[in-house]
What does this fold into?
Amino acid sequence: MTRLFAIFIFNTMIANAGVEEYLRNIKPVLKERCYACHGALKQKAGLRVDSAENLRKGSKGGDVLALGQAEPGKLLVRLTAADADERMPPEGAPLKQEEIKAIREWIAAGAPVPQSETAEADPREHWAFQVPNRVPLPGNAGNPIDDLLEARLAKRGLKAQPPAERTILIRRLYLDLIGLPPTEEQLQDERRWEAIVEELLASPYYGERWARYWMDIWRYSDWYGLGDEVRDSQKQLWRWRDWIVTSLNENKGYDQMVREMLAADEITPRNLETVAATGFLARSYYKFNRTTWLDNTVEHTGKAFMGLTMNCAKCHDHKYDPIDHLDYYKFRAIFEPYHVRVDAMPGELDLAKNGITRVYDGNLDAATYLHERGDESKADKNRKISAAPPAFLASGWEPPKPIDLPLEAWRPDMQEFVQNGYLSQKLARVAESEVQLKKLKLDKAAQERKRAKSEGILPVKGEAILTDDFSEPRPDLWTVFGSDSRYQDDSLSITKPSLDTTYLRSKVKHPRDFQPELKSKMSGGQKWETTGIPFDVDESGDNSHFVYTSVFGAKVHLAHTIGGKDEYTQAVAKRSIKLNQIYTLGLKVRDRLINVSLDGEFLFAYTLPRRQPGAVQIMAYDAVTEFHGIDVWNLPAQVVLEKAGDAVTATVTAETIKLAEARLGLAKAEYAFAKARVDADNAALRKEGSGSAEAVGKSQIEAGLAKAKFDLFDSKKSAEAEKTIRKLEADLKSGKFPDREPLPFSQVSLINTPNKDALPSDGGYPKTSSGRRTALANWLTHRDHPLTARVAVNHIWLRHFGAPLVETVSDFGLRAPRPLHQDLLDYLTVEFIESGWDMKYLHRLILTSKAWQRSSSNLAADKKTLAADPGNLHYWRMNGRRMEAQVVRDSLLHLAGTLDLAQRGPSVTPSPDARRRSLYFFHSRDGRSRFLATFDDADVFACYRRSESIVPQQALAMMNSQTAAASAKQIAAVFEPNISSEALVRAAFSMILARPPAQAELAESLAYLKAQPKREHFIHALINLNDFLMIR
Amino acid sequence: MTQDDPFAMSRRALLQSTLGFGALALNGIMAAETQNRPDGKPHFMPKAKRVIWLFMRGGVSHMESFDPKPALNEFAGKSISETPYKSVLDASKIRKLRIPIKGDANGHTRTKIFPMQTGFKRYGQSGIEISDWFPNIGSCADDIAFIRSMWTSDNNHGAQVQFHSGRHFLDPRVPTIGAWINYGLGSLSENLPQFINIGPRFFDKKDAHYLGPAYDAVNLKIDPNNPLDYAKPSNGMTTAEQRRNLELTNKLNRFAAEQYPLDPIIEARIKSYELAYRMQTAVPDALDFSQESPETQKLYGLDQNETKSFGQQLLAARRLSERGVRFIQIMHGDGAAGAWDNHSGLKNGHSRLSRQVDLPTAGLLKDLKRRGLLEDTIVVFATEFGRTPGSQGADGRDHHSFGFSVWMAGGGIKGGVTNGATDELGYHAVEAPHYVTDVHATINHLMGIDPHKLEVPGHKRLEMDFGHVIKDIIA
It folds into this structure.
């Protein structure tokens, strides 16, 4: 009996020790390493190890502990297996020896079960996954926030701080709602609090302030790339930013905003302003890897709207939340078809300058496969995965239905503003060409009348100074440079194009006033094809002026050589110079005035900056040239020269007129072609009008013909143009029109489509959209979705109070413990949904609460409260917050009166001189404002919540930056210069800190100003104060 | 100095602070994380206090630097498959690669063997073979541990990010080794930042990422007049005026503190101004090379055009080290990809670039050694990948991720040793292969940091992020 009793006690002691061992050394290991697969979340092989009781139950295959047996049970076998494929856990290092030992001993002790051990709860029961309910309000404070918070304060015996001073509160409200500090007048506003709140909620600046918060959460980023190559995000993404600002100002429901961001192209395909919302998805564009792109889309759609870390299930089942590996790819499948494109916007139709970046389903057939271990090279192609949300949340999900898109969506060139825009562009070109031609004709007539009057008599040539017909070498006349010239066929030929200017230089110097004429013909070259006459050439040859004809440049141009370097002037006449044609280039030079003519036709007059008569040369640069003759005469006094105007006087030649006529012809033909295309499109796709493919074909040929005729004036293209003209004239005669459909106007936008390979070949985008994103949007914004509204309310609360109700704002999964104020969060969530997801309603509720209006100081706080809740978890006071980067800069500029409050439009380059609100600063991977970056500006990759650091670089920025220093100076200038120091100190404190100075502060400030009267320095000190940088 | 210092009163408080240099993050992102926030103390006894990290951007050829391969000369011009080492091209051996830019002109297999473009010889008592382009570093061989078996998984220059963070360019950005050191260890200086970057960066200009901007590197330029952003008043305020302003700011902040008792922000703000003020003089002072003897300046090559730029950066690094900067990161080589990226003209490029860095780097080692600083300063000389044993075009080498070399010296590292090896062609790291984070692990180990203890909730680190300490090179 005694013995038996002793054994019993002994066993109990062992069991107690075993229990302790289990709780202390075994359960934590199992939790860390095994629960993910063998717990509440999943029960692989039917085994749960999340309680001793469950361990004793064993797996599908039966017992795993082998209690009381000599051979180890399955649990120990698998934990200690030598073969890595056999061993558990499958990932990471094996359990440590001492951990195995503890388990073995616990089993040996009979696997005793601790009292009242509960297994893990079903993860689907997690608080955040339940539809929120509105709890009955415990009090009657008039505001549910106060009701709920005060009840909890009372329960804990905590005492709240009184409201902040009125001016501090008004400043808090302005900075909170519109991000701009109040003026003195606004600070003294004596209206009811609610009236001020309403006024600011209605302010257009509200949308800008709050847009920046959502831009953080939704990862706003302007494009990044090398040159014009877009690597990250997209160009024109600012239209999405503008949509955010506008939507907030219009108080669009949050649910509608979510729907538009995910699927506006399906929901309102005709409304481009709304389609801009899909910038949210376009922003995830990543040039180099589609999987990276979609990974970003999945991760941030999950985090931003649901607070779900979907990304944790990319490689394996989620370790904490009930999201398995397959769920990840089901979610990806929702996005699989989507791509990005740029469409035209009204106004400028050139997509390089203007447009809208939006998404569309471009690849409806793209399949989604599961990537083993998240490795895209290991896609399981045996199984196509269809679009769906994680199974545990799927209530409210309606399977996607394909959506037929309107014509304007899949043929954006068919939008009326595009058709009309293009046609009016073409018409404008016709009108422009007409005006130009008319003006040229009038000019020519006037010039001819004038010249006839001034010359009156035939031009007179003076005494000949140099004449050579180049029939034979004349070493008496010329010094020869280069070796590629030879005399043949009665001319001097430069036989090889050379980049060394090959030339003859005259042995005689020309007089100051003189008149040379050079006859030459070019027949080829590598590129430049230039010949001309240098004059005023000095001994070294390094200084001269020269006039040349250029085939490549299609011009006659005057230039200087100074110290061996060429400097090109504005004296130039555009003139098509053809190969194999003899031109006579003539100059008349009197003192510093020069007239240039080609084939006797005056081109331009110019005043040379300096003159020093020297030799004359003939030159050929990169041109196979024949020189047929040169004459240099004295310029007699009676010859009248054209005067140079301010710079250059060009003349209108017959050729100029012809060119203008050809341009007009081209403009008309192109208009006709464009019109025919629009008519044909309308006839074919809208069944409107009488357009036809035949008319398009005919006008296309006519446009081609007009282009060729225009090209005749371009020496490089003229030969080809002549051929084209012959061919097209024949085509026109024969009625043989092109049967190929011309590209739609949107071809440019197709080129801007990153996946243009996936597009249908008929020149448009897909006519249907998969409807998957609409299904996603509807599911997310279904009133019973437990996460969407909660996550949004938490974000809004955070921005008002500086502390969220749920700490992990982008993770509401199992790692987010039930929040202290779940009742409040849920109450507000239901209110929010029932108000129509009305954000201004929520702001109003918060801003009129006592909780929001409390002082942010601990001064005179209840000692017990301070001791019990120093971290202010119960919101017994307000949290002081540092202004976000944008608010720091905007406030400085606003106080200085230099902030440009213009709204919307393309992002502006950050610079100390920029004046727009910081929200409009270009913000991308590499293009960010240094000043803003110093104050924890949003990380472009992900920023669900800003950091709020205090680092010396911020002090340096406030002390030394131009933004701060210039603002200090401008703020100082706001005050009357003759007010007393005391008046200045009082006014400046009020303006910058929204409060009067305390006695000590006043005294200190006055002492400073006495020693150092520069007021801008005093202001500079004030904007460096902590109280300025803080929202108190 | 003290009478010029408007903050003289609060210095004691500063020195008592464990947070040290200005890195205070305020808001509650941290609330969930505060309990894990490091206290700034090493987790175990450190051997080193600081790191000077030299990074050659673009990819240094390992065969023509620290891993000479005579077989390349022997088989020059032949295809790899014609050599006894053709198995290096087996598909199974190249599976580690993840290609970020498909269809790029670079980052391909190059099979025609390109001979070494310079000679090599043995250096020091250890007799380690080093190419003729690095004779001065060679002269320090007995103080250096050469790691000849590095590998990475990116065949393009995103590998620069990977070498610093351990994560492939296609993965999300995570903190770099410099940011982790800055995050994990307290300050050694009361007037300088703990983490400094000098020189160009391209693929990622940030370091701290989820650790928060307080732990990013502060960018420094070798220009005493303008060494960092906002280093000097932009409005011509004199030092006296600035000091007076700071005194006023300081006093008014202290008055405000009475209205906001127990507010840690005000105290932190005051401290940050104090530090900023001192930084304004401390940084230019650290860059004032006139305080150095002509002999020292010459040691770093400040007297020669070719070596002056890098030499100044290294001399600055030493001066910053002495003044308590923890991690000095120096990037060598301009351009997006980095100057060492010699796809063509390798001989010309590498010989010129090595002349820029060889003498100053050796000068740094010698200078640290004679000052007794090398004992607790880790010097790392690294690059993102090596270059192909085969030729690209007529006279270049392509990117090569399967095997390349880096070296470490000082701070508890053994001198005169090599670790690991590539095969005869320099193709694969075949002996003791090291992923890039092994370098990080080794640094952490020497600095007394257990990186597991620094992990931030919500940001799970993977096994490969931690790497393995290269034990064989530890003294």
User: Anything to note?
Assistant: The longest strand of chain A covers residues 514-524.
